[in-house]
Amino acid sequence: MEVTALFLQTLETILPVFAMVFIGIGLKRAGWIDQDFVATASMLVFKATLPTLIFLSIIRADLSATLNPALLGAFALATLGSVLFCWGWAVLRVPREERGVYIQGAFRGNCGIVGLALAAGMYGDYGLSAGGLLLGVVILTYNSLSVIALASYSAGQHTDWRSILTHIATNPLILAVIAAVPVAAIGVSLPGWLMTSGDYFASLTLPLALICIGATLSLRELRESGRLAFSASLMKTVTLPALATGAVWLAGFEGRELGLMFLFFASPTAAAAFVMARAMGGNAALTANIVALTTLMASLTITLGAFTLRAAGLI
Question: What's the pTM?
């Protein structure tokens, strides 16, 4: 695939997402939505529509054709290494009250939307099915580690591991994965009307989450959190994709498996990070700025990264 075609394909995925953020800004400024709407919509996404989207994605994955335990394990280890790297950096360079939000914003990618869409575009059915399975690992690791990071730096609280484990065990996104895996493994076929209704409900996830991000963005907050937001965005779109992709390549992965993991590592910060930060009392405005900046930067960094890997004959 030529770099121009890949660049255009990336833009076709990224630009609609970023446009929804601007729609949220416009709706807030027009007075059509307010912070009460943002709070209600964010909770709806976190507790209902996003878990539905995750559940449906996993049960539709082709387990027999694309199940690769080595790939899943390598991604989980690389993710853990990325979080530890971010955590160490945050301890050295980030104010304590912002560390949880910084760590989550720097490692948690939008794999379920941007990563999966790019994987399908580059690798067709393999990208969609293998990416769907990888998404299960993504949800479990990203949500568990996000809860740990956010809970560890909650304002005015010391780390309470019982509370952290409770957050993980009751997280709606993790529960959706736990419920979906046996359904997908057994091959249970849900009624058509139920799947269609689920699709309708799940389709609310992206627009609602991104509109809420736009409604939370402000120039004042962007200026005040500019250094932290840019640092986390650079970590998410440049540093971690380079380190994680290099690590899995050294571990022996190449071709479409390496390409799939690169796309997931390089995806911009997930809108779900904003939803979780808000739900757990973190700095939602800083998270929103990180999501917006990484979404803007990813169209360039993913294109350049994929082109470099293709030119080197690695994917």
Answer: 0.80
